[in-house]
Write a structure and sequence with these properties.
single chain, 214 residues, alpha+beta, 9-stranded mixed beta sheet, two-stranded antiparallel sheet, 31% strand, globular
Length: 214
């Protein structure tokens, strides 16, 4: 299997009745001046009724002798017709916590077995689960939690991880030294890969922290 073999063959408008995962909506609202306006946007149709979020993205850190590495993956994404560099991620199931979803998706997509990071590992004011984050609030209502997970590379099950992918999932897993994430993102972009916004934002944050010695 080579992700490079994937390609978009055609594209056409999708009738609302045929859509499975999303829908278009028109929202009627008043602006700060009291004027009535409308806003076109998209919504996911899969969010569980008792969940505040659609899913999770996983900041999975491999504990390695040569320093912490972040686990990333490559997937072909038809909407942009490119292979995208992403964090492991997935939609949350009914009655599933963000932490449970993160560990399940990590194992399914990468084969690795992780543990949710303890708060003392994240810093005094840190948390293993982020605030609710909205992906593109001017376009859609999709949201998520970032969940921090640690992967112990001394565990036997993490020596030769085997993912459990669905029939329509094609994922290449790789790891990058955390200190090199910014440079690696720039290199991958030059090589033609798309960089997922969450990966790019994390890389920019690390770069800012280094630049300003935070």
């Amino acid at each position: 299997m080579s992700l490079a073999q994937a390609k978009v063959e055609s594209k056409e408008p999708l009738a609302a009745a045929e859509a499975v995962w999303t829908r278009l909506v028109c929202t009627h609202y008043r602006d700060p001046n009291g004027q009535r306006r409308t806003w076109e946007s998209a919504e996911r149709t899969t969010r569980p009724a008792r969940s505040a979020v659609d899913g999770v993205n996983i900041i999975a850190i491999l504990r390695m002798a040569q320093g912490p590495h972040i686990l990333l993956q490559k997937q072909f994404r038809p909407p942009i017709a490119k292979i995208c560099v992403e964090m492991p991620a997935g939609l949350i199931d009914d009655d599933e916590s963000p932490e449970e979803c993160a560990l399940r998706e990590l194992r399914e997509e990468t084969g690795y077995v992780g543990t949710v990071a303890a708060e003392e590992e994240e810093g005094r004011s840190g948390s293993a689960v982020s605030a609710v984050m909205f992906n593109d609030p001017g376009f859609c209502n999709t949201n998520l939690h970032l969940v921090h997970v640690v992967i112990d590379m001394t565990r036997p099950e993490n020596q030769h991880p085997i993912p459990s992918l669905e029939e329509n999932e094609f994922i290449d897993v790789f790891a990058v030294p955390l200190k090199d994430l910014y440079a690696e993102c720039r290199r991958l972009e030059q090589d033609g890969y798309a960089i997922d916004a969450r990966v790019g934002t994390l890389a920019e944050g690390l770069q800012i922290a280094q630049r300003w010695k935070l």
